[in-house]
Amino acid sequence: MSETSEMWHHVLSAFEDWIDYEATGFGPWTGYFSIDNLRDLTDDERLAWMRSMCDEIIPGRVEKCRAASVALEDFLPYMPDPETIETVRSMIELSNVIEHAMLRQSDMIFDMMEEYSPSGLDDIVQYLSSLSEAEEDVRHHMSLYSQGFGRLKSLGLEVSDDIA
Predict the structure, then answer these.
(1) Left, alpha or beta for 159 (phi > 0: left; psi -120 to 50: alpha)?
(2) How far apart are CA 95 and CA 93, in angstroms?
(3) Is the residue at 69 inside a domain?
(4) What is the pLDDT of residues 90-138, one digit of tens each?
(5) Interval 136-163: pLDDT, tens
(6) Closest Cα partner for 99 from 80, 79, 126, 72?
(7) Neighbouring residues of 134: CB distance < 8 A, sequence distance ≥ 6
(8) Rounded distance, CA 149 to CA 87, Å?
(9) Domain range for residue 97?
(10) According to the model, what pLDDT value does residue 129 have?
(11) What is the tally of structural domains in the chain?
(12) What are phi and psi of 160, to 5 degrees?
């Protein structure tokens, strides 16, 4: 296996790990972006959800995003021409945009937790709305990776993706 193929495998593996985390590690927790679902929890459960999001879930998500970005950075020296280099750089920048959006979500949840403690559930509705909007933004930006991968292919980057 060539070094380029190994690096391509590293990129694909990082993105697969991230996608898996989104589906199994993060996705189930987004159900509580809805006030109706939060109403089904006790006060302690709501606070535990907020703490988990800030301390574990979102940091895990950010780590997966960073790992994908690092894999792209490691892949960058193997790009054959300026156009493919620019495409990979734009994908790395996209990772930075997504990471910052995720960190803003963590900040929103922290602020929501601060507001929730003295005020209660009804006073955090605006945070849930902001979280939902921020999540739509994150997902939109994540969908742009497919354009980057498509562009690499259209530029002739032929790297096998069926590595064992």
Answers:
(1) beta
(2) 5
(3) yes
(4) 999 999 999 999 999 999 999 999 999 878 888 899 999 999 999 999 9
(5) 999 999 999 999 999 988 988 766 554 3
(6) 72
(7) 101, 104, 105, 108
(8) 9
(9) 3-154
(10) 94
(11) 1
(12) -60, 135
pLDDT digits (tens, 9 = 90+) for 58-71: 999 999 999 999 99
Helix axes 145-154, 125-143, angle to 10 degrees: 10
> Can you tell me the distance from the alpha carbon of 133 to that of 127, in angstroms, rounded to the nearest whole number?
10
Task: Answer whether residue 125 is part of any domain.
Answer: yes
Dig out the tokens for 82 from the structure: 């300026």
Give a yes or no: residue 24 inside a domain: yes
Q: How many residues does the chain have?
A: 164
User: How much is the pTM?
Assistant: 0.91
- For 8, counting Cβ atoms within 10 Å of its Cβ (0-12 exposed, 13-18 middle, 19+ buried), the class is buried
Q: Which two tokens stand for residue 121?
A: 């559930």
Side chain identity at 152, as an amino acid letter? L
Neighbours of 164 (CB within 10 A): 4
Would residue 159 count as lying in a domain? no
| Two structure tokens written together for 85 | 């280099």
Q: What is the rounded distance in angstroms from the CA atom of residue 113 to the CA atom of residue 63?
A: 23
